[in-house]
Every structure is written in C-alpha cells, then in structure tokens.
Amino acid sequence: MAAGPNEPKSRYLQYLEVVTGSLEEKRRYRQYKARVKRLPENYRTAVEALERYLMHFGPADGAGAMSMYEDLADLFEQSVADGTPIRDIFGADPVEFVEAFMANYPAGQYRARERNRFTSAIQRAAGEDTGQDGTDR
Known about the structure:
By secondary structure, the protein is mostly helical. The protein has one domain (about 30-125): c-terminal domain of poly(a) binding protein, CATH 1.10.1900.10. It is about 70% helix and about 0% strand. The protein has seven helices and no strands. Helix 2 (about 25-35) packs parallel to helix 4 (about 60-80). The radius of gyration is 20 Å and the shape is flat. The model has no long low-confidence stretch (mean pLDDT about 80).
C-alpha cells in the first residue's frame, strides 16, 4: 500500500496523510522510539524526561521536531558508547542544557509566527516603529 520513493501516492494515501499527518514522520518517530527503548534504563529515563520537556517547549512542526529527536537519540547513543555519565551530558543545570539544545532547531511555523506577532505588538505598544504595515494582528 505504501508508495515507493519515485511513485506517486495513491489518492487513498494522500487522503490518509491529510487526516493523520505524514506517514514518513510517523515512521521516523517509531524508529526514534525504538532507539530510545534500546538505551540503558538511566539514559532512557533522562531521554524520556527531555522528551516530555521538548513536547511542551520544543519545535512544533513535525520535520523540525523529528530532526531534533533523532539528534537526541544520536547524542545519547554516543554517550552510552563513550561511557559518558548523564550529569556530564547535562551539566549542573539541565534546563540550560535543553534550552541550548533547542536553540539549534527551528521553532516551528506557528510558534515563530506567534513570537513575531507578540514582539511586534510590544514594539507598537512601546511606540517603536516596526517597519511593518500592521497586518500581523
């Protein structure tokens, strides 16, 4: 039922993706979860805690989020292979670590648009010229 890389998708698959989201993103997410499941328990616990945080504050779009999660799995798999202690990964402040980690990924279209809208509104309220035509309301 799945179309190959060079085959056009059937109307059914196109409709299914409209309703459920990208099938490719779902496949990537399942692969990521399988990688996390293979980590030692303490590393897996740390990744799952990071994942919860990222679900709330990380990139909102599927592609950006999946790249971030795959990089997270890479980081922890390499840390396990190198024998890096969890505290050495995170440092003294886990929130500082995750915020720096997230800064490497796009915020997602919705969040970026809302951040820009918020910043523009504050600039207008402060009487600063935003250089925009005011259509961001």
